[in-house]
From TrEMBL:
It comes from the Bacteria. Keywords: DNA-binding, Transcription, Transcription regulation. This is IclR family transcriptional regulator. The keyword Lyase does not apply. Pfam families: HTH_IclR, IclR_C. Residues 11-73 form the HTH iclR-type domain. It comes from Billgrantia aerodenitrificans. Residues 74-257 form the IclR-ED domain.
Length: 266
């Protein structure tokens, strides 16, 4: 079905309501009625009805003093219910808790959504000094070690579909200079099978990342630890790497993944 045919079956009111929610989600701030109507480019009367409906259903919240709108609790509830429904979260949460206890480092599970990494599970170390990320936090794929590991499951065609332009979305410190530079990094990560990134995204923080595979052998997610040092000490490096690798293998196994060695042995 082409786009023109597909649009015949769309419900305009629902489309407008979801567009408003997505705009507020992207902005990460409160917005006035006039701002919302302008950003989503719909008539004010239509925007008013959509906003009133969303507020009534708890998907928008209007500040009693300023009159500004923000996402309501029902949006958060939907998000957390989605996260809780992910098998990788259900089976992975106790594993990353054990990983945190074994390493003393904050541990995370993340998935990819387009050009974003989304944290879907996390546990913090008791004495964590690193800026915490919460469940639902999004970060750019190309600027994070977790994102690079998630990209290792893509073919060249899929990679170029994800990043159609040679220039990447931004060139902040730590980001690869171009799409080709990112591809080269991803291929090195694929060959290695994991990422140890020291101060790659945030100065003074290192991370160790391993892929999580599903029953089909595809990369479903990644598991990582954040180490609060600029460079991981040599005497700790292998222990920490091995711990993350073991956690990734455990979660992958719980998802039904069988390694090539396991399949050959049966």
């Amino acid at each position: 079905m082409n786009d023109k045919d597909a649009r015949k079956y769309l419900i305009p009111g629902l489309e407008r309501g979801l567009t408003i929610l997505m705009e507020l989600s992207r902005s990460h701030r409160e917005m006035s009625f006039a701002e919302i109507a302008k950003r989503v480019d719909i008539p004010k009367a239509t925007a008013y009805r959509a906003i009133q409906t969303l507020e009534y259903m708890g998907f928008l919240r209007r500040h009693p003093t300023t009159g500004l709108y923000s996402l309501g609790v029902n949006v958060l509830r939907l998000g957390f219910e989605y996260v809780a429904s992910l098998d990788v979260v259900q089976v992975g949460q106790p594993v990353i808790e054990s990983l945190r206890d074994a390493t003393g480092c904050s541990s995370h599970i993340a998935i990819r959504d387009g050009q974003d990494v989304i944290y879907v599970a996390r546990v913090s170390a008791a004495n964590a000094t690193i800026r915490r990320v919460s469940v639902g936090t999004r970060l750019p794929v190309h600027r994070t070690s977790l994102g690079r590991m998630l990209l290792t499951g893509l073919s060249r065609a899929e990679f170029e579909e994800l990043y159609p332009d040679e220039a990447l979305p931004d060139t902040q410190p730590g980001a690869p200079a171009s799409r080709e530079a990112l591809w080269r990094l991803v291929q090195e990560d694929r060959s290695r099978g994991y990422v140890i990134a020291e101060s790659f995204f945030q100065l003074g923080i290192s991370s160790i990342v391993y892929p999580i595979y599903n029953a089909d052998g595809d990369i479903d997610a990644v598991v990582s630890i954040m180490v609060p040092v600029h460079e991981i000490p040599a005497d700790e490096r292998e222990r920490l790497r091995s711990s993350v690798e073991g956690a990734a293998e455990t979660i992958s196994g719980l998802l039904g993944y069988r390694s090539t060695t396991e399949r050959q042995g049966t």
